[in-house]
Specification:
Strand content: 5-15%
Largest sheet: 8 strands, parallel
Order of helices and strands: EHEHHEHHEHHHHEHHEHEHE
Number of helices: 13
Radius of gyration: 21 Å
Bound molecules: zinc ion
Number of strands: 8
Protein backbone atom coordinates (compact mmCIF):
# COMPACT_ATOMS: atom_id res chain seq x y z
CA UNK A 1 0.00 0.00 0.00
CA UNK A 2 1.35 3.42 -0.88
CA UNK A 3 0.15 6.93 -0.27
CA UNK A 4 1.78 8.94 -3.01
CA UNK A 5 1.79 12.42 -4.44
CA UNK A 6 2.53 13.76 -7.92
CA UNK A 7 5.80 15.67 -7.74
CA UNK A 8 7.82 17.40 -10.44
CA UNK A 9 11.36 18.03 -9.15
CA UNK A 10 12.40 19.66 -12.44
CA UNK A 11 9.95 22.49 -11.80
CA UNK A 12 11.62 23.52 -8.54
CA UNK A 13 15.13 24.58 -7.44
CA UNK A 14 17.20 21.80 -5.87
CA UNK A 15 17.34 23.72 -2.59
CA UNK A 16 13.59 23.13 -2.28
CA UNK A 17 13.76 19.34 -2.67
CA UNK A 18 14.84 18.48 0.90
CA UNK A 19 12.11 20.74 2.32
CA UNK A 20 9.48 19.08 0.15
CA UNK A 21 10.77 15.62 1.11
CA UNK A 22 10.61 16.47 4.81
CA UNK A 23 7.09 17.87 4.46
CA UNK A 24 6.02 14.72 2.59
CA UNK A 25 7.32 12.56 5.42
CA UNK A 26 5.48 14.69 7.95
CA UNK A 27 2.30 14.25 5.91
CA UNK A 28 2.85 10.46 5.84
CA UNK A 29 3.40 10.45 2.07
CA UNK A 30 5.23 7.24 1.23
CA UNK A 31 5.83 7.68 -2.51
CA UNK A 32 6.33 10.50 -5.01
CA UNK A 33 5.18 10.04 -8.61
CA UNK A 34 7.84 11.73 -10.73
CA UNK A 35 9.08 12.21 -14.29
CA UNK A 36 5.82 11.98 -16.19
CA UNK A 37 6.49 14.95 -18.50
CA UNK A 38 10.25 15.30 -18.14
CA UNK A 39 11.47 14.03 -21.52
CA UNK A 40 13.28 17.29 -22.37
CA UNK A 41 15.34 16.90 -19.17
CA UNK A 42 15.88 13.16 -19.53
CA UNK A 43 17.00 13.49 -23.17
CA UNK A 44 17.83 17.16 -23.86
CA UNK A 45 19.24 16.25 -27.27
CA UNK A 46 18.71 13.11 -29.26
CA UNK A 47 20.56 10.21 -27.66
CA UNK A 48 22.08 12.39 -24.90
CA UNK A 49 20.43 10.99 -21.80
CA UNK A 50 20.72 12.72 -18.44
CA UNK A 51 19.31 10.94 -15.40
CA UNK A 52 21.72 12.33 -12.78
CA UNK A 53 19.31 15.06 -11.65
CA UNK A 54 16.57 12.52 -11.08
CA UNK A 55 18.98 10.23 -9.21
CA UNK A 56 19.60 13.15 -6.89
CA UNK A 57 15.88 13.83 -6.42
CA UNK A 58 15.23 10.14 -5.69
CA UNK A 59 18.00 10.18 -3.11
CA UNK A 60 16.70 13.33 -1.41
CA UNK A 61 13.21 11.82 -1.17
CA UNK A 62 14.54 8.47 0.04
CA UNK A 63 16.40 10.13 2.92
CA UNK A 64 12.99 11.08 4.30
CA UNK A 65 11.55 7.62 3.64
CA UNK A 66 9.69 8.66 0.48
CA UNK A 67 9.94 6.08 -2.34
CA UNK A 68 9.55 6.94 -6.02
CA UNK A 69 7.07 5.96 -8.71
CA UNK A 70 8.82 6.60 -12.03
CA UNK A 71 6.77 7.72 -15.04
CA UNK A 72 7.74 7.40 -18.67
CA UNK A 73 7.55 10.83 -20.36
CA UNK A 74 6.05 9.77 -23.68
CA UNK A 75 2.96 11.99 -23.39
CA UNK A 76 5.24 14.93 -24.15
CA UNK A 77 7.46 14.37 -27.20
CA UNK A 78 10.21 16.99 -27.12
CA UNK A 79 10.66 19.98 -29.42
CA UNK A 80 13.69 18.41 -31.10
CA UNK A 81 11.83 15.17 -31.76
CA UNK A 82 8.67 16.83 -33.06
CA UNK A 83 10.67 19.22 -35.24
CA UNK A 84 12.77 16.42 -36.70
CA UNK A 85 9.81 14.03 -37.17
CA UNK A 86 6.58 15.95 -37.73
CA UNK A 87 5.09 12.70 -39.01
CA UNK A 88 4.54 11.65 -35.36
CA UNK A 89 1.76 14.27 -35.02
CA UNK A 90 -1.79 12.89 -34.92
CA UNK A 91 -4.28 13.55 -37.72
CA UNK A 92 -7.98 14.19 -37.17
CA UNK A 93 -11.02 12.84 -39.00
CA UNK A 94 -10.78 15.58 -41.61
CA UNK A 95 -7.17 14.80 -42.49
CA UNK A 96 -5.82 17.85 -40.67
CA UNK A 97 -3.25 17.86 -37.90
CA UNK A 98 -5.09 17.14 -34.67
CA UNK A 99 -2.25 18.44 -32.52
CA UNK A 100 1.01 20.28 -32.91
CA UNK A 101 3.90 20.82 -30.55
CA UNK A 102 2.94 23.22 -27.76
CA UNK A 103 0.65 21.21 -25.52
CA UNK A 104 0.92 17.46 -24.87
CA UNK A 105 -0.19 14.09 -26.25
CA UNK A 106 0.88 15.25 -29.72
CA UNK A 107 1.71 11.86 -31.12
CA UNK A 108 0.19 8.89 -32.87
CA UNK A 109 0.88 5.52 -31.20
CA UNK A 110 1.00 3.74 -34.56
CA UNK A 111 3.76 5.76 -36.24
CA UNK A 112 6.79 3.41 -36.42
CA UNK A 113 9.38 6.14 -35.82
CA UNK A 114 7.57 7.29 -32.68
CA UNK A 115 7.48 3.75 -31.39
CA UNK A 116 11.25 3.60 -31.96
CA UNK A 117 11.84 6.79 -29.97
CA UNK A 118 9.48 5.53 -27.29
CA UNK A 119 11.45 2.32 -27.02
CA UNK A 120 14.75 4.21 -26.81
CA UNK A 121 13.77 6.56 -23.98
CA UNK A 122 11.89 3.88 -22.02
CA UNK A 123 14.73 1.36 -22.38
CA UNK A 124 17.30 3.95 -21.29
CA UNK A 125 15.17 4.86 -18.26
CA UNK A 126 14.46 1.25 -17.31
CA UNK A 127 18.13 0.36 -17.64
CA UNK A 128 19.04 3.28 -15.40
CA UNK A 129 16.30 3.13 -12.76
CA UNK A 130 15.30 -0.53 -13.00
CA UNK A 131 17.42 -1.71 -10.10
CA UNK A 132 17.16 1.36 -7.91
CA UNK A 133 15.69 0.06 -4.62
CA UNK A 134 14.02 3.42 -3.99
CA UNK A 135 11.94 3.13 -7.16
CA UNK A 136 8.91 0.96 -6.34
CA UNK A 137 7.06 1.04 -9.64
CA UNK A 138 6.35 2.59 -13.01
CA UNK A 139 3.57 4.58 -14.58
CA UNK A 140 3.50 4.30 -18.37
CA UNK A 141 2.85 7.54 -20.27
CA UNK A 142 0.00 9.69 -18.96
CA UNK A 143 -3.68 9.12 -19.65
CA UNK A 144 -3.39 7.22 -22.92
CA UNK A 145 -6.42 7.38 -25.17
CA UNK A 146 -7.98 10.51 -23.72
CA UNK A 147 -10.35 12.58 -25.79
CA UNK A 148 -8.06 15.57 -25.86
CA UNK A 149 -5.99 13.82 -28.44
CA UNK A 150 -8.39 14.32 -31.32
CA UNK A 151 -10.50 12.79 -32.54
CA UNK A 152 -11.89 11.19 -29.38
CA UNK A 153 -8.61 9.45 -28.73
CA UNK A 154 -8.18 8.25 -32.31
CA UNK A 155 -5.77 9.23 -35.07
CA UNK A 156 -6.35 9.05 -38.82
CA UNK A 157 -2.87 9.23 -40.30
CA UNK A 158 -1.44 7.00 -43.00
CA UNK A 159 0.48 4.90 -40.45
CA UNK A 160 -2.86 4.21 -38.79
CA UNK A 161 -4.43 3.21 -42.10
CA UNK A 162 -1.64 0.70 -42.75
CA UNK A 163 -1.86 -0.66 -39.22
CA UNK A 164 -5.66 -0.85 -39.45
CA UNK A 165 -5.43 -2.96 -42.61
CA UNK A 166 -2.94 -5.32 -40.94
CA UNK A 167 -5.27 -5.59 -37.94
CA UNK A 168 -8.24 -6.35 -40.22
CA UNK A 169 -6.26 -9.00 -42.08
CA UNK A 170 -5.45 -10.72 -38.79
CA UNK A 171 -9.03 -10.41 -37.55
CA UNK A 172 -10.90 -11.55 -40.65
CA UNK A 173 -8.33 -13.60 -42.53
CA UNK A 174 -10.07 -13.17 -45.87
CA UNK A 175 -11.70 -10.18 -47.51
CA UNK A 176 -14.84 -12.23 -48.11
CA UNK A 177 -15.23 -12.62 -44.35
CA UNK A 178 -14.84 -8.87 -43.82
CA UNK A 179 -17.31 -8.08 -46.61
CA UNK A 180 -19.79 -10.45 -45.10
CA UNK A 181 -19.37 -9.24 -41.51
CA UNK A 182 -19.65 -5.59 -42.46
CA UNK A 183 -22.46 -6.07 -44.96
CA UNK A 184 -20.52 -4.14 -47.56
CA UNK A 185 -22.97 -5.12 -50.28
CA UNK A 186 -25.00 -2.24 -48.88
CA UNK A 187 -24.26 0.82 -51.02
CA UNK A 188 -21.72 -1.13 -53.09
CA UNK A 189 -18.99 -0.99 -50.49
CA UNK A 190 -17.56 -4.44 -51.24
CA UNK A 191 -13.76 -4.60 -51.24
CA UNK A 192 -11.66 -6.62 -53.68
CA UNK A 193 -8.27 -5.66 -52.24
CA UNK A 194 -7.15 -4.88 -48.68
CA UNK A 195 -5.48 -1.69 -49.91
CA UNK A 196 -8.89 -0.29 -50.89
CA UNK A 197 -9.91 -0.01 -47.24
CA UNK A 198 -9.94 3.58 -46.05
CA UNK A 199 -10.35 5.00 -42.58
CA UNK A 200 -13.93 5.80 -41.54
CA UNK A 201 -13.55 9.57 -41.65
CA UNK A 202 -16.52 11.83 -41.33
CA UNK A 203 -14.79 14.35 -43.56
CA UNK A 204 -14.61 12.03 -46.54
CA UNK A 205 -17.68 9.88 -46.16
CA UNK A 206 -20.35 12.14 -44.73
CA UNK A 207 -22.86 10.84 -42.26
CA UNK A 208 -23.56 7.57 -44.02
CA UNK A 209 -20.58 5.63 -42.76
CA UNK A 210 -20.93 1.87 -42.41
CA UNK A 211 -21.37 1.38 -38.65
CA UNK A 212 -19.40 -1.89 -38.77
CA UNK A 213 -16.50 -0.04 -40.36
CA UNK A 214 -16.68 2.63 -37.64
CA UNK A 215 -16.89 0.04 -34.87
CA UNK A 216 -13.92 -1.89 -36.30
CA UNK A 217 -11.86 1.30 -36.22
CA UNK A 218 -12.82 1.96 -32.61
CA UNK A 219 -11.77 -1.55 -31.67
CA UNK A 220 -8.56 -1.22 -33.67
CA UNK A 221 -7.68 2.02 -31.94
CA UNK A 222 -8.40 0.66 -28.51
CA UNK A 223 -6.05 -2.18 -29.44
CA UNK A 224 -3.49 0.38 -30.65
CA UNK A 225 -3.36 2.01 -27.21
CA UNK A 226 -3.14 -1.39 -25.54
CA UNK A 227 -0.23 -2.37 -27.81
CA UNK A 228 1.54 0.95 -27.28
CA UNK A 229 1.25 0.38 -23.53
CA UNK A 230 2.46 -3.20 -23.91
CA UNK A 231 5.53 -2.00 -25.84
CA UNK A 232 6.50 0.14 -22.86
CA UNK A 233 5.60 -2.47 -20.22
CA UNK A 234 7.72 -5.15 -21.87
CA UNK A 235 10.63 -2.73 -22.32
CA UNK A 236 10.52 -1.76 -18.64
CA UNK A 237 10.36 -5.39 -17.49
CA UNK A 238 13.53 -6.27 -19.37
CA UNK A 239 15.41 -4.22 -16.78
CA UNK A 240 13.08 -3.84 -13.80
CA UNK A 241 12.15 -7.20 -12.33
CA UNK A 242 11.24 -6.00 -8.84
CA UNK A 243 9.19 -2.94 -9.71
CA UNK A 244 5.51 -2.94 -10.62
CA UNK A 245 4.22 -1.54 -13.91
CA UNK A 246 0.92 0.28 -14.38
CA UNK A 247 -0.53 3.38 -16.02
CA UNK A 248 -3.16 5.98 -15.24
CA UNK A 249 -6.26 5.37 -17.36
CA UNK A 250 -7.79 8.49 -18.78
CA UNK A 251 -11.34 7.87 -17.74
CA UNK A 252 -13.58 7.00 -14.89
CA UNK A 253 -15.62 4.22 -16.38
CA UNK A 254 -15.72 1.70 -19.16
CA UNK A 255 -16.25 3.00 -22.65
CA UNK A 256 -19.43 1.01 -23.03
CA UNK A 257 -20.78 2.75 -19.97
CA UNK A 258 -19.72 6.24 -20.83
CA UNK A 259 -19.62 5.93 -24.61
CA UNK A 260 -20.58 9.30 -25.90
CA UNK A 261 -19.43 9.71 -29.49
CA UNK A 262 -19.35 13.47 -29.10
CA UNK A 263 -17.32 13.20 -25.93
CA UNK A 264 -19.26 15.29 -23.43
CA UNK A 265 -17.52 15.47 -20.09
CA UNK A 266 -19.37 14.25 -17.03
CA UNK A 267 -21.91 12.40 -19.09
CA UNK A 268 -24.66 11.44 -16.71
CA UNK A 269 -22.77 13.15 -13.94
CA UNK A 270 -20.61 10.15 -13.34
CA UNK A 271 -17.56 10.11 -15.57
CA UNK A 272 -14.55 12.17 -16.38
CA UNK A 273 -13.02 11.45 -19.77
CA UNK A 274 -15.09 9.60 -22.31
CA UNK A 275 -12.66 7.51 -24.27
CA UNK A 276 -12.45 4.62 -26.62
CA UNK A 277 -10.12 2.27 -24.82
CA UNK A 278 -11.02 -1.22 -23.62
CA UNK A 279 -9.24 -1.03 -20.28
CA UNK A 280 -9.57 -4.77 -19.76
CA UNK A 281 -7.39 -5.43 -22.79
CA UNK A 282 -4.98 -2.65 -21.92
CA UNK A 283 -4.62 -3.98 -18.36
CA UNK A 284 -3.29 -7.31 -19.57
CA UNK A 285 0.26 -5.98 -19.83
CA UNK A 286 0.12 -4.27 -16.42
CA UNK A 287 0.63 -5.54 -12.88
CA UNK A 288 -2.60 -3.82 -11.86
CA UNK A 289 -4.97 -1.28 -13.40
CA UNK A 290 -4.96 2.30 -12.19
CA UNK A 291 -6.54 5.53 -13.25
CA UNK A 292 -6.56 9.29 -13.09
CA UNK A 293 -9.55 10.14 -10.98
CA UNK A 294 -10.73 13.70 -11.12
CA UNK A 295 -14.24 12.78 -10.10
CA UNK A 296 -16.06 12.80 -6.80
CA UNK A 297 -18.69 10.90 -4.86
CA UNK A 298 -20.63 8.23 -6.70
CA UNK A 299 -18.52 8.79 -9.81
CA UNK A 300 -15.41 7.89 -7.85
CA UNK A 301 -17.13 4.89 -6.27
CA UNK A 302 -18.36 3.55 -9.61
CA UNK A 303 -14.95 4.03 -11.19
CA UNK A 304 -13.15 2.29 -8.34
CA UNK A 305 -15.59 -0.62 -8.47
CA UNK A 306 -15.06 -0.92 -12.19
CA UNK A 307 -11.29 -1.03 -11.81
CA UNK A 308 -11.51 -3.48 -8.95
CA UNK A 309 -13.50 -5.81 -11.19
CA UNK A 310 -10.95 -5.86 -14.00
CA UNK A 311 -8.60 -8.31 -12.34
CA UNK A 312 -9.35 -11.48 -10.41
CA UNK A 313 -7.26 -10.32 -7.47
CA UNK A 314 -9.17 -7.03 -7.38
CA UNK A 315 -5.97 -5.08 -7.14
CA UNK A 316 -6.03 -1.50 -8.43
CA UNK A 317 -4.65 1.94 -7.66
CA UNK A 318 -5.37 5.61 -8.18
CA UNK A 319 -2.24 7.09 -9.73
CA UNK A 320 -3.69 10.55 -10.04
CA UNK A 321 -6.64 12.23 -8.43
CA UNK A 322 -8.09 15.36 -6.99
CA UNK A 323 -9.52 15.98 -3.53
CA UNK A 324 -6.78 14.11 -1.66
CA UNK A 325 -8.52 13.38 1.64
CA UNK A 326 -11.84 12.27 0.20
CA UNK A 327 -10.28 10.31 -2.66
CA UNK A 328 -7.84 8.60 -0.33
CA UNK A 329 -10.52 7.44 2.09
CA UNK A 330 -12.81 6.33 -0.72
CA UNK A 331 -10.03 4.47 -2.53
CA UNK A 332 -8.85 2.66 0.58
CA UNK A 333 -12.42 1.74 1.50
CA UNK A 334 -12.84 0.16 -1.92
CA UNK A 335 -9.64 -1.84 -1.71
CA UNK A 336 -7.07 0.22 -3.62
CA UNK A 337 -3.46 -0.82 -3.26
CA UNK A 338 -2.33 2.79 -3.49
CA UNK A 339 -3.34 6.32 -4.24
CA UNK A 340 -1.31 9.25 -5.48
CA UNK A 341 -3.25 12.56 -5.60
CA UNK A 342 -2.39 15.45 -7.89
CA UNK A 343 -0.30 17.44 -7.05
CA UNK A 344 2.21 18.25 -4.33
CA UNK A 345 2.44 21.90 -5.30
CA UNK A 346 0.86 23.99 -8.04
CA UNK A 347 3.46 24.79 -10.75
CA UNK A 348 4.40 28.44 -11.19
CA UNK A 349 3.84 28.38 -14.96
CA UNK A 350 2.33 26.32 -17.74
CA UNK A 351 -1.17 25.08 -18.53
CA UNK A 352 -1.67 23.59 -15.07
CA UNK A 353 -0.55 26.55 -13.00
CA UNK A 354 -4.17 26.96 -11.92
CA UNK A 355 -4.67 23.32 -10.93
CA UNK A 356 -3.87 21.70 -7.63
ZN1 LIG B 1 -1.96 7.82 -36.68
Amino acid sequence: MFLGMAYHPAYWPKERWPIDARMMREANISAARVGEFAWSRFEPREGAFDFAWMDEAIEVLAKEGVKTIMCTPTATPTAWLTHEHPEILPVDEHGLLAKRFGARRHYCPNVPVYREYTHKIVAAMAEHFGENPNVIGWQIDNEVGDVYMLSKGRCYCDACRKAFIRWLEARYGALEALNSAWGTVFWSQEYTDWEQIVLPRRGTAGEGLNPSHVLAYERFFSHSWAEYTRLQAETIREHAQNQWVSTNFACGLARETIGTPEGALYQGGCVWFPCIVDWRELSQSLDFPAWSSHVRGTAFALSADYLRGIREDGNFAVLEGGGPRMSTYAAIARGATGISPFTWRRPLWGAESGID
